[in-house]
Amino acid sequence: MIYGAIEAGGTKFVCAVSDENLTILERVSIPTTTPEETMKEVFAFFDQHQPNAIGIGSFGPIDVNPLSETYGFITSTPKVAWQDYPFLNEMKKRYDIPFGWTTDVNAAAYGEMKKGAAVGKSSCMYITVGTGIGAGIVVDGKVIHGYGHPEAGHLLVRRHVEDTYEGTCPFHKDCLEGLAAGPAIGNRFETPAQNLPTDHKAWEIEAHYLAQALVSYTLTVSPEKIIFGGGVMKQKQLFPLIYKEFEKLMNGYVATPNLEDYIVPCQLEDNAGITGCLLLAEDALNNK
Amino acid sequence: MIYGAIEAGGTKFVCAVSDENLTILERVSIPTTTPEETMKEVFAFFDQHQPNAIGIGSFGPIDVNPLSETYGFITSTPKVAWQDYPFLNEMKKRYDIPFGWTTDVNAAAYGEMKKGAAVGKSSCMYITVGTGIGAGIVVDGKVIHGYGHPEAGHLLVRRHVEDTYEGTCPFHKDCLEGLAAGPAIGNRFETPAQNLPTDHKAWEIEAHYLAQALVSYTLTVSPEKIIFGGGVMKQKQLFPLIYKEFEKLMNGYVATPNLEDYIVPCQLEDNAGITGCLLLAEDALNNK
């Protein structure tokens, strides 16, 4: 049995195939240009390996509602060439096999739950903080899809008292992503985020926004584990600042695990998404 | 087959029994005083009817984590007599039958999904706005329990620009409950909420806070339906104000159903909770 995986990101598509133990046999990275160009290479890869099922975790927003006419589409993405692209349909036309279909961050959350930081749990949240902020959620062992999929990176947050930066989000200006994704940190201090010293004020402000979002997520879905990925979260000095701020904002209202066990870095690092996709391929085959 | 239900609220316990079609055969309302007094009457009711399973929807916070030592307890409630009360254990000691156990608002969400405003959906959110604000969530046909249960009424919100009221929440001062539950509306304008005219500024401020919370919930769990219950939501002029504000805040970022179909009043009204509890009793019996 061969499982296939596509982690479709805004800058690159990672495609992989594994054996039935989820050991990766081969992987390629394909630049995200236009559907024509990118998908040609995706097809070439899977034509060669003939997987029995493929799990897809895609950048979005995507349509995850099986009752919708545009189920399986990438929808209102700012990447113009990919707007309204019927991704899943095109894959199904090419390969008559079962597919898993979710967001890139849901796939990463699923990967971390089954093989990473949340092994043994039945719920978790995965949050990536990089050029954008995205969140995936697993509840009761399954990725969350409701009417659509979570877009929790755009949560509305309260401003840090010392922060006057207007925010970068084209939809909401100063939502979480607008104030706390990598570009916002860089713009606020006119220095790329990774060049700011670890004791810079920037990290206190960043922790304020992230902790606020985690309090909201905890109050809303109460996951057993919150897992951070993405470039910004490589700044490990953020974690203690987030614990402190989370504690202050929650003020003992609901019980959580010890914060050091509750809010953690991802374990699978760059493999979280692809692992989740392989697991979704396995599920798709078992449920077909 | 007889199903039993307990909707355990902060002011009264409603107990009911139904036949297997969920038709209620008898119900009683018992004041919430101390566990000794209240539970004596609860036991008297069920001793008489001998149900085959009982579903409990309780005020909280409660412990819903089956792995916890205090599973089935009411935990840190401000009602001192009920703090750390082993509710489910006491019921199990008395009756050797299957039990369902969740929050009052989760039970109401489940009732509305199976028999009310969200029939045919697999996910929904139920929000009650009264003396407090509570929210229950059903995802993929099941009420959400993670590490704990949702307490989404305490979401941190941004202030309405004209609102200087400090907020009533003993934990967070100006969280959603602190700014938008019935007592906050009344205190802000020194007039009981129900006496304020329908075109009073109060409702615009109220809609601002509720819409903000709904945007956060939608971005986080993307339910197929959001259902409002509780005394404050009998002010029907709130609904169009909420639609307007929701639209403004979301700014087209994620697709939702038409707002008039998405954000609706509850259908079962005062029976949502008890119906959900009966359904949980039925589930408990089927899964035992």
How would you describe this structure to a colleague?
- Two copies of one chain form a homodimer.
- Chain A has 288 residues and is an alpha/beta fold.
- Chain A folds into two domains: 3-104 and 270-286, 2-Layer Sandwich (Nucleotidyltransferase, domain 5); 117-266, ATPase, nucleotide binding domain (Nucleotidyltransferase, domain 5, 2-Layer Sandwich).
- In chain A, 35% of the residues lie in helices and 19% in strands.
- Chain A has nine helices and ten strands.
- In chain A, the strands form two sheets. Chain A has a five-stranded mixed β-sheet with strand order 3-2-1-4-5. In chain A, strands 8-7-6-9-10 form a five-stranded mixed β-sheet.
- In chain A, helix 6 (201-221) packs across helix 7 (238-250).
- The radius of gyration of chain A is 19 Å and the shape is globular.
- The two termini of chain A are 15 Å apart.
- The model of chain A has no long low-confidence stretch (mean pLDDT 95).
- The A-B interface holds A 61, 75-76, 123, 135, 137, 139-140, 142, 144-152, 154-158, 171-172, 212, 215-217, 219-224, 249, 251-257, 262 and B 61, 75-76, 123, 135, 137, 139-140, 142, 144-152, 154-158, 171-172, 212, 215-217, 219-224, 249, 251-257, 262.
- Chains A, B: Keywords: ATP-binding, Carbohydrate metabolism, Kinase, Magnesium, Metal-binding, Nucleotide-binding, Transferase, Zinc.
- Chains A, B: It catalyses: D-fructose + ATP = D-fructose 6-phosphate + ADP + H(+).
- Chains A, B: Its EC number is 2.7.1.4.
- Chains A, B: Its cofactor is Mg(2+).
